[in-house]
Design goal:
By secondary structure, this protein is α+β, with helices and mostly antiparallel strands. It has seven helices and eight strands. It has an eight-stranded mixed β-sheet with strand order 1-2-3-4-5-6-8-7, with helices on both faces. Keywords: Transferase. One of its GO terms (cellular component) is cytoplasm. Pfam families: Acetyltransf_3.
C-alpha cells in the first residue's frame, strides 16, 4: 500500500453531480438503479449484475468496493445528482497495476440521464483524480464495437483508439464479442511530454 494514497478525496464535485466513494448502506440504491437499467447493462456489465442480483448482494458488493478502496486495489465511485441525491451511475478505476502504474476505467449512467453531458462532466472530475491524486500513468477503457456513444465519449475526453481485441468479452448470453481498446496517458492528459 502507498501512504500517499491514505488521504484521497472521496467526493468529487461537478456542477450537477457528486461523484463519491460508495459507502455502507448504498447497496439498496445500487440494486434499484441496476434493476431499472437491467436491459441496458445485461450485455455490458454481466458480472456486476450477477454480483448485485439481490439487495443484500448489492450491499455486499458495495462493501467489497469499499474494502478495495482502503486496500488501494480499486476505486469505485457512485454518481449522485445534486438536485435529488439520487444515484444515477458509477465510475470505476480498477485492474490497477501499481508497478507501472496503470488502470482500467469503467463507467455507465442511468438510461434517463444519458445524452445530457453528465458523464463528460463526471469524467472531467474523475480523470484528474486518477492522473493527479492516484498518479496513474495510463488509463485504458474497452467498449463493445457497437457502443458508439461510449467511443465518442472516450475520444471527447482525450482517449485514443489503440486497437481491437478479438473475442475479448463474453455477454450474459454467452456470446463472445470483440471490443475496442482506448488509452490515455498521464502526459497526454496533463499536456506534458513523456
Amino acid at each position: 500500500m502507498l501512504p500517499r494514497l491514505l488521504n484521497l478525496d472521496t467526493a468529487l464535485l461537478t456542477p450537477r453531480t457528486v461523484v463519491r466513494r460508495f459507502r455502507e448502506g448504498d447497496g439498496e440504491a445500487l440494486y434499484n438503479l441496476m434493476q431499472d437499467n437491467y436491459s441496458r447493462l445485461n450485455d455490458h456489465f454481466p458480472k456486476t449484475l450477477q454480483a448485485a442480483n439481490t439487495m443484500s448482494n448489492a450491499e455486499l458488493l458495495v462493501r467489497r468496493w469499499l474494502a478495495q478502496w482502503h486496500l488501494q486495489e480499486g476505486f469505485s465511485l457512485g454518481i449522485w445528482l445534486n438536485e435529488t441525491a439520487a444515484l444515477i451511475g458509477m465510475v470505476r478505476v480498477f485492474h490497477i497495476d501499481w508497478d507501472i502504474p496503470k488502470a482500467e476505467l469503467l463507467y455507465w449512467l442511468d438510461k434517463e440521464h444519458t445524452q445530457l453531458g453528465l458523464m463528460t462532466e463526471c469524467l472531467g472530475a474523475v480523470l484528474p483524480f486518477a492522473f493527479e491524486q492516484l498518479a496513474i500513468e495510463k488509463l485504458s477503457l474497452r467498449t463493445a464495437m457497437d457502443n458508439v456513444p461510449s467511443q465518442r465519449l472516450a475520444r471527447k475526453c482525450g482517449f485514443r483508439r489503440e486497437g481491437d481485441l478479438r473475442a475479448d468479452f463474453r455477454k450474459m448470453s454467452g456470446e463472445l464479442i470483440d471490443t475496442m481498446l482506448f488509452g490515455l496517458t498521464r502526459s497526454e492528459f496533463l499536456g506534458t511530454s513523456a
